Amino acid sequence: MIVALMAIVSANASAQLTHYVQGALTSMTSAGKDAREYKSSMGSSPYETTNTIGFDVLYGFELPLVKGLYWGAEAGIGTSRGFECNFKESMVGTSYSVEYDETFRAYAIRILPVNFGYRHKFNDRWAIDGHVGVGLSYDFAGGRKGSDNGKAFDQSIGDGDSYRRFDAYLKVGFGASYKHVGLDISYQRGLNKFATDFEMYASNLTIGVRYIF
Q1: Taking a C-beta distance cutoff of 8 angstroms, is the pair 112, 61 a contact?
Q2: Within 13 A of 156's CA, how many CA atoms are on the CB side?
Q3: Number of alpha carbons in the 13 Å side-chain half-sphere of residue 76
Q4: What would the pLDDT profile of 125-148 be if each residue is shown by its tens digit?
Q5: Which string of b and e fits 120-148 if b means at least 16 CB within 10 Å?
Q6: Are the C-beta atoms of 15 and 64 separated by less than 8 Å?
Q7: Counting beta carbons within 10 angstroms of the beta carbon of residue 204, is it exposed (0 to 12), middle (13 to 18) or buried (19 or more)?
Q8: Burial class of residue 18 (count of CB atoms within 10 Å of its CB; 0-12, 13-18, 19+)
Q9: How many angstroms separate the CA atoms of 74 and 144, rounded?
Q10: Which residues contact 123 (CB under 8 A, 6 or more apart)?
Q11: What is the spatial distance between Cα 47 and Cα 49, in angstroms, rounded to a whole number?
Q12: Which residues pair with 155 in a beta bridge?
């Protein structure tokens, strides 16, 4: 299979590469057991994490293979992991009270070396495509901020030994383009847990606008 792919790429080496730059907004949340049952340090009641907004800036290219199929790659920088959670609980007639809020964001360098897709051209101006790929990311900055029963905290991702900066992810998306302008909607699912002792994975929906040249 690899030999066949190399032969196709070699045969299309003279084909013109399509390049693009893209800016995007990302709705980030998390998946996994601990994402559904994230607990404050003061109480035992579970509550779900919610979405937070991030960004993504990338460069990519595509190489035509055969009959609308293409192989491409991307590299960029942006928010890779994130979520928000807010929790309040009290019990009437007792002194029990819990109030907790947290926002977590991580910023990463990402590369998507394997990205295969199919593009259907209606004419010289309009086209749609679907694509699926596998990528890698490295979190270089970020952390969690919030308050626990009025006590503020601010922790960097480098403060703990259990945080995993590297992640592999799956990316599935759909796009449409008109001449040199395109719209892309993609879903990314992290494959590596945030931390060794915490079952939470990245789950991001990205809406991006790209310029194709």
Answers
A1: no
A2: 5
A3: 20
A4: 999 999 999 999 999 999 999 998
A5: eeeeeeebebebebebbbebeebbbebeb
A6: yes
A7: buried
A8: middle
A9: 28
A10: none
A11: 7
A12: 144
d(CA 202, CA 172): 14
DSSP classification of residue 68: T
Residues 6+ apart with CB under 8 A from 204: 26, 27, 28, 29, 54, 80, 187, 188, 189
Low-confidence stretches of the chain (pLDDT beneath 50): 1-6, 8, 14, 39-44
Joined tokens for residue 35:
């994402």
CA 53 and chain centroid, separation:
11
- Say how far apart CA 149 and CA 122 lie, in whole Å: 58
Residue 48 has which token pair?
């779900």
CA dist., res. 211 & res. 147, Å (int): 41
What domains sit in the chain, N to C, each tagged with a CATH number? 14-212 (2.40.160.20)
Helix (H, G, I), strand (E, B) or coil at 96: coil
Backbone φ and ψ for 148, nearest 5 degrees, come out as: -125, 105
Query: What's the confidence (pLDDT) of residue 3?
Result: 46
Q: What is the pLDDT of residues 1-17, one digit of tens each?
A: 444 444 545 555 545 89
Residue 26 has what pLDDT? 93
